[in-house]
């Protein structure tokens, strides 16, 4: 279990080592290293997702480790309350950033081993604190330094711990 202690409240997360061992281990390692402490949820889209893990307040990007293999072909769906690895257009480009699905987003699921079909790997699920995640979903957002959907007031991960 992982606890994300945010300025809105705590979110308890269960990692899925059975279906996404690389991604779950990667996330846990970032937690153990203290990478997520002091980071923000930098992109929130109501009814879609809340993304974090890569920026500190002021949208200053944090260094991350090497990219990991995309395990989205594991059969686990991007349903409400699941966490998935964020990535660029390159299917195997995930590193530290992740997002929490605010609704069922099955259009993000794996369909084929090609650029269009790889999808986003679900590696964990919120088991306590969806009320906190729902608070994130309704914050006011805007554009900041060329980034869209940035919360006007920081949603801060004060600390992340392995329980």
Automatic annotation (TrEMBL):
Keywords attached to this entry: Isomerase, Rotamase
InterPro entries: Cyclophilin-like_dom_sf, Cyclophilin-type_PPIase, Cyclophilin-type_PPIase_CS, Cyclophilin-type_PPIase_dom, E_coli_cyclophilin_A-like
Top-level taxon of origin: Bacteria
Domain PPIase cyclophilin-type: 1-162
Transmembrane segments: none
Catalytic function, reaction form: [protein]-peptidylproline (omega=180) = [protein]-peptidylproline (omega=0)
Isomerase among keywords: yes
Entry GO MF terms: peptidyl-prolyl cis-trans isomerase activity
Annotated EC: 5.2.1.8
Pfam families: Pro_isomerase
Membership in a protein family: Belongs to the cyclophilin-type PPIase family.
Job description of the protein: PPIases accelerate the folding of proteins. It catalyzes the cis-trans isomerization of proline imidic peptide bonds in oligopeptides.
Protein name, per record: Peptidyl-prolyl cis-trans isomerase
